[in-house]
Amino acid sequence: MRAYAAQLLGDLAHAVDFLCAQPGVDPTRIGYVGHSLGATIAGAFLARDPRVRAAALMAGTGTLSRLWLRSRDPAAARGLEDLDGVQCLARANASLLFQFADRDEWISRADANAQLTAAREPKQATWYPSDHALNATALRDRATWLAAELRLDRVPEMPERAWLPHSQVRVSRAVGTLIRWGRQLTRAGNTEK
After folding, report:
1. Is 81:108 a contact under the CB 8 Å cutoff?
2. Which segments of the chain does DSSP mark as H helices, in order?
3. How confident is the model at residue 74, as a pLDDT?
4. Which of 58, 127, 177, 193 is a plausible cystine mate for 35, CB 3.0–4.6 Å?
5. Closest to 40 (Cα-Cα) out of 106, 110, 138
């Protein structure tokens, strides 16, 4: 898992290198948008790369270590804690927009609040009446915020509807169901003790 996270962070840094080397790109107006794992790894990335001016983080957890390994390998999870957003967001140079969903089966309100507490200003957070995929309002809000933060001439046109590919929606729903079952079994097991 550590190697996978290192690869993600390296790929993101290379992407910013590539972007900054392109003609016509203003390196002082680099933005980042991450959803789920992309938002989860963002804290560590933003703490390492000060070139990103604005970052929109959607439905991510502040504890990468817990997400990947906590139940299977507590020692390995402790080895990832330095990549947790709750550890790194205070060192991020970017303005931050957090977007969370009221019905997110992955990210709890406590997890979201821990990230908000850890992040330094400027930051803002918005909650949406949706599931983990968020919704079209979140998409428009994100585009408007990024346009303002990056001083774009106009807000990009947004589709009327935002969606994940059908295969990802099915995977998300199936895994969400498994997580709910696991939580119910855990609660049932704890009450029997």
Report:
1. no
2. 2-20, 37-40, 42-48, 64-68, 74-78, 85-88, 109-118, 136-149, 166-192
3. 73
4. 58
5. 106
